[in-house]
Request: fold
Amino acid sequence: MTSYLCAIGTANPPHRIPQLHIADFMASALQLDEAGTRKLRALYRVSGIGQRYTVLPDYGRTSGAFEFFPNTPGLEPFPSVGARMAEYRRHALPLSVQAAHACLAQLPEVEVSSITHLITVSCTGMYAPGLDIELVAALGLPRHVQRTCVNFMGCYAAVNALKLADAFCRADARARVLLVCTELCTLHFQKSTEDDHLVSNALFGDGAAAALVQSRPAATGPSLALTAFHCGLEPEGQQDMAWHINDFGFEMTLSSYVPRMIEQGIGRLTEALLAHLPVRLADIRAFAIHPGGRKILESIEHALGLSAHDNRFAYQVLRDYGNMSSVTVLFVLRELLASLSPTDAHAPVLSFAFGPGLTLEAMLLHVAWGGNVGNVKNMVNARNAVNVVKGKSVDASLLSS
Reply:
């Protein structure tokens, strides 16, 4: 049985702030001298990010007009975890609801009452009773909907949520899974001049994404069949990408070695994903890669022989939104879905996401079109269209087992 990602809806907070305006805020908050400010602005210019969204308007303001941070030199007293979690609770629900409505509006055939499972994903805030319970009421979901929370896994967590949704649908053909990822990364600005913190402050933004997964494709337009998953772990990178709760927010460790470690591991990850499938890397023309940062994207291109054009959806999301942690790969998949046409039916899609551990997640998906539940299996007979199989027959059951 195959499950299908049928729609993705997204949402961002109202405050859209140019990257270099954020750099000015950071330089002032960190009380950098002229040389330090120049270096910081250079870091922001080469990030590949043009703008980011945030629930905190302060990042686009100067001292004296702040709403969340103190209007004092050095922003003292610096906001505590409690203050940041209060902001998370205030903003997470409306942003999640907006994304969910944007998702479900694409599927008029789906009644809210028919949703059987709700998966919420976040690593930037927690409380209980939590976002999952609040979404049941806000969206009018059945009270008996089965709820699962994927918390504190970082940027790759949406892939784990899709694995769960896939498992639910494979276990029960009637399952209809709503997945909601919500990340308010900008709540966790760290007032530190350590390289890790300077880089993380330069990358992360806020957003939400919702997806609907079920055991049949959408009635019209493109869906993505969830064909295969594979997880890789690079334990030597445990200290290079990490996420800890400290007194003044959640603290990100993101060392300069991460792109190199991903470059070293991405080939093995891809080979393991495709090892038992009738698809080779050379057959794939569509990619949805989590834009953890510009250097990470470039490292993957170098390792797998991809071009910047192959990675265009990731660069587009990085430019327009920054890195939104778990939300980001769903934004990339949304852009890919929007680019598809009926001629792309059966085409394979390769997707990656990365996070603490160092964890590398891979997914292989296939384009389905217009409610044809057989068209993924029909890929075996569409060699001329997508060049999937070269010179040998393939058991179609491998694609939906």
